[in-house]
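Whether sequence alone determines local backbone shape is best considered at the level of individual chains. For completeness, the protein is quoted in full, as a sequence line and a line of structure tokens:
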Amino acid sequence: WSSFASSADGNKFVAAAFQDIYGNPVPVYISTNSGITWAASSSPSNYWGAVASSADGIKFAVGVVAFTSGGIYTSTNSGTTWMSNNTPSKPWDAIASSADGCKVVAVTGGGSIPGGIYISTNSGTTWTETDAPSNYWDSVGSSADGARLIAGAGSSFGGTIYTSTDYGVTWMSNSVPTNYWWRSVASSADGNELVAVSSGVYTLRTTPMPVLNMTPSGGNLTVSWLVPSTNFAL
């Protein structure tokens, strides 16, 4: 098992594996009861390396880690059907999704060949390579709205972490130890608390700027905001 993702309520799981114990490619597996039972989805059997889920567990994105038949597949119905996306045949090492599943970010380059960071704003239908530098990208994380992104890289040549606050349009290098291979990164819902794992666990906290959303709902007004990493009162 190479990657695992969950819906926000913990009821729907999606799991990806690189291969079975005999070295054969496998389908993506789905659970709709918090992991009590699992079933193979209708995805093709492949050498899956990364998977992401929307908050409601309806939209999935999964990437192939092998060069032979690489690419990214997406599902918009909890894994009932899958669609192959027009992405390069690369080893996709990590994928992250916004809460609504519309904005997806994927990284490649965790193997022996450096790669880039790709983003999609339409649930994985089309993809665009960002201006992030070519690197040995191995991990990626996203805030709930998909605006704030974090990507980690590493190899025998050293590692680095880059962040973006504008949906991946621009990227900034962060002052982290360069002798670490950043295997995994994650973000809080508002993107103001980040965590990265290598030989130790590192965190970055910034003071969030709360954003209040107000939308008409019938004759009422719906007021909402992201759960931040610092408490705010309405």
In short: The two ends are 43 Å apart (CA to CA). The mean pLDDT is 89. The longest strand covers residues 149-155.
